[in-house]
Fold this protein.
Amino acid sequence: MNYRSIFRADLFAGQTIMVTGGGSGIGRATAVELASLGAHVVLVGRTAEKLTAVAHEISRLGGEASTFTCNIREEAQVQALFAAVLAAHGALHGLVNNAGGQFLSPAEFISQKGFHAVVETNLTGTFLMCREAYSQYMRDHGGVIVNMLMENWRGFPGMVHSAAARAGIENLTKTLAVEWARSGVRINAVAPGLIESSGLDNYPDVAKQFIQNVVQDIPFKRMGTESETAAAIVFLLSPGASYISGESIRIDGASSLWRKTWEIEDHNNAPPPFNGFEP
Ligand code: ADE
């Protein structure tokens, strides 16, 4: 495959790795990179067409993927998903809980229903996926899980629901790292800041303008790429991270650390964006 991963081409040969939300954005980039490193990638999401398009992309590039639709908020569907994947592949070495979603709104306008929907997708959905991966396979065989956070170090005005849910996922990740260590399971998380991803297309134009302004307040003066996020996920899945569990990595160009006490003039000196899809 010609994805330009920085990792060894046979790193995940013979492994089956599930990626939720694999039909677009960071999930797609992670799936393509894992397939380029020899994994059979199980793409999971709600929309079959999006998953199929990525599976075709992977097979055109010479990799292997299969697709399973599932709403991760539905316990019975999650249980059936793992039963079907294990029946088809016999093993599950890794799980990337990338699926999630939120909408921009000041907290005062978020209904209970809207708040619950975001918490259920992100926090409950991630919990159900972790629990079933463990009970149906990883308790007896070990495995690696990577969860998806957002850079919410100083809260996240405009997304109180998702920021709270992701804080829950971060703590869940720490708890499970300890509870499941005896089974040889490692579980970590990544916290992307502003990433130039297809997920941004879902926001209204006014939010897109807001995002352009925010870039000036990122010490690296640019957004991150999907590939830069995928690379951190792939590292956490790899044997190079064998002694890392319960940890979260921020992928944010130092944006969570910056405040107005230190002016950073406009510059072009950030490490160049890494994009594995470029020829
Ligand atoms: N992506 C976003 N929300 C999802 C859900 N509830 N189930 C699976 N994939 C999703």
About this structure: The domain at 16-257 is CATH 3.40.50.720 (Rossmann fold).
